[in-house]
Amino acid sequence: MTDHTTDLATEAFVAHRNLLFTVAYEMLGSAADAEDVLQETWLRWVKADLGQVSDQRAYLVRITTRQALNRLRTMKRRREAYVGQWLPEPLLTTPDVAEDIELAESMSMAMMLVLESLSPTERAVFLLREVFEADYDEIAEAVGKTPAAVRQIAHRARGHVDARRPRRTASPSETRAALESFQRAIETGNPQDLLDVLAPDVVLLSDGGGVKRAALRPVIGAEKIVRFYLGGSAKVEATITWEPTVVNGSPALAVHRDGELDGVMAVRVEDARITGLYFVRNPQKLTHVTSETPLTLR
């Protein structure tokens, strides 16, 4: 490959890099693995005959999807051996990501956990069609299926997701208000205030990765979660602070222990009350939250 061709390949890759990272991240739920997929995509991209590529964006998305699918299938064993609850790696994102409603919803902790229940091919088809608006022929090329098969897979995946997604997606302001109420209740230690902001059947998932203390199983029910948090807080000698942030396109809370980042709390909100709490404490999953530069996606 000549230097000129390499420059053209680099220019095209850089132009679409944010999109490719988002595709890989939403497929895998891991920024580290998404970065590895992008490296593999680049190595294949620079070997391509650019003169034969009619749509560079579609071609790059196809490579990224295939590499992500390969990695997703091999990650299954890693997930099965994971200690406790597994949650996606939170990403510090710019506030404008929330303006892209489909993207913000698909990146939320709640939705990414729903996507975990799909097969790798279903997940790829759903994301490429519903979030990235690829046509069926393009998706077929990416996942190695016929367009007719892709239509069936898309229909099946959409039905699965629709049955599990919230009836109405909470706006950023609604989520922020619920988080503020949650934060005040935790900081004041008022059980009733905490019960008021939590839905009766709220579920807490916490991910310590076997490194940090976390509930190994889901904690279900507002009263149990109140006891979990207020009882646990009374035993902590360190200074705990909660600071508003934006992760995965939605308002969230960064939890600091004696000034050091200790975890990230994301939530699912319905009808002004919290129905899902997602607390990531695994230090290996917090590197993209400590970054000073939020990610701009797409």
UniProtKB/TrEMBL annotation:
Domain RNA polymerase sigma factor 70 region 4 type residue range list: 109-160
UniProt GO molecular function: DNA binding; sigma factor activity
Keyword vocabulary terms for this entry: Sigma factor, Transcription, Transcription regulation
SUPFAM superfamilies on file: NTF2-like (SSF54427), Sigma2 domain of RNA polymerase sigma factors (SSF88946), Sigma3 and sigma4 domains of RNA polymerase sigma factors (SSF88659)
Biological processes, Gene Ontology terms: DNA-templated transcription initiation
Parts forming coiled coils: none
Keyword Transcription regulation: yes
Keyword Transmembrane helix part of the UniProt annotation: no
Stretches assigned to the RNA polymerase sigma-70 region domain: 14-77
Domain of life, per lineage: Bacteria
Signal peptide as annotated in the record: none
Assembly: Interacts transiently with the RNA polymerase catalytic core formed by RpoA, RpoB, RpoC and RpoZ (2 alpha, 1 beta, 1 beta' and 1 omega subunit) to form the RNA polymerase holoenzyme that can initiate transcription.
Family per record: Belongs to the sigma-70 factor family. ECF subfamily.
NCBIfam families per the UniProt record, alphabetical: PRK09636.1, sigma70-ECF, SigX4
Protein name: RNA polymerase sigma24 factor
Organism field: Streptomyces aurantiogriseus
Gene field: rpoE
